[in-house]
Amino acid sequence: MRRAGARLLIAACAALVTAGIAPPGATQMTDPTLDSRSHQLVALLAGQDTPDFLAPSFTAQVSPQQLAAVTAQLRDALGEPTGIAAASPESSWNTTLTVSYQRGTATVRLALDPASPHRVIGLLVTGTTRAGDTLAALSADIAALPGEAGFGVWELGGQAGGGSPRRIAGLHDTVVAPLGSAFKLWLLAEASRQVTAGKRRWDDVVSLGLPSLPSGITQSWPVGTPMTLQSLATLAISISDNTAADTLLTTLGRDRVNAMVRLAGAAEPARTLPLLSTREAFVLKADPALAARWATATPAERRRILAAEAPRIAAAPLSAALFADKPVATDEVEWFASPADMARLLDWLRLHADAPARAIMATNPGTDAATRAPFDYLGFKGGSEPGVVTLNWLAHTKDGRWLAVTGHWHRTDAAVSTLTFATLMNRALALAAQAPPR
Fold first, then answer.
1. How far apart are CA 413 and CA 399, in angstroms?
2. What is the largest CA-CA distance in the chain?
3. For an engineered disulfide with 409, which of 111, 134, 149, 158 has Cβ 3.0 to 4.6 Å away?
4. 154: number of Cβ within 10 Å
5. Is residue 135 part of a domain?
6. 339 near 408, Cβ under 8 Å?
7. Does some domain include residue 136?
8. pTM for this structure?
9. Per-residue model confidence as pLDDT tens digits over 305-315
10. Residues 6 or more apart from 193 whose CB is under 8 A from it?
């Protein structure tokens, strides 16, 4: 994510398509410059040239190709933009706009440079609506993705239990697929289990372990930096910090986390176990022969591989260039679960996790404010790498229902668009809030 000031922020965990934004009547801007720039935005979203619209600080960080790709994707989903339906100015230089499209709306935050000529320095698409959307239409759109994809929406029982998650809708939702960083929910579940059992405390201080590759921030911190259990878990879940997750795995104990994978309902645990740290996964992926051995080995054989390779894994230099936007051993060296498995894990967290663990899950809700509106709790964890994206929400609606919304998309021949899948899964989240109780 680039720094604020010149940005088009549409993260993999942010919504592009939502339901529940009720467009009010058109609102006249009070500041003529802000009004003028807002209407220029419609031309930009339509793919037209907009000279003198974007500040140099913006264009230095967001290429014309990146911008054109995002605006084209919005048009693919919603048709052509037709105008400004509503505006909510926050100051003379900042506003939130509802942009009308032929088949829906987009919510956009716009920030202008206070210095003349007041070009745009911030542009954030926070959500969209799609007129007449349905779960059936969503299923068809997910089915049309290249590669393999699946999703599911489940209603969960009451706080006292209520049986297994009840499926509302889904597609290929029992098919096991790569998870990426969503495996860190197993770490959170086991951390919470150990705390509630009195074996650990959230304020226990442990030493930061060996660095992994980003995402995250702690990979550049000194090894041995004192960290609390709660800070490790918060970083691992909220910003998917890999080094924090690896330290958490070591602290909790691999065998105990392996047991949690089974306890939380993974249908095919042998695909994943023993659960890898991210550093181990990166080193294995970088060695095609070792990755192939891992893929066909039993869990017992894999434990022997890790023991034999431990010195090399600890000393190996890591390079993000390994991936270079192409899938690397995503069917061989990964963490695996189906959308239904993830729904059971989220239900376990709902029923058994303590308040700090649930708060950690909600630190990054993974969607925009409009999609969050029907919920009074939204816990989230996603995962992505070239060829893999997965998104998972535990949600409680304001009318008292618990829901799990989970999905994945992966390819072995090409990268996948996290933006495309975030669009689809945020539609699933929005539609889940509208689904009648079963």
1. 43
2. 69
3. 149
4. 26
5. no
6. yes
7. no
8. 0.83
9. 999 999 999 99
10. 260, 352
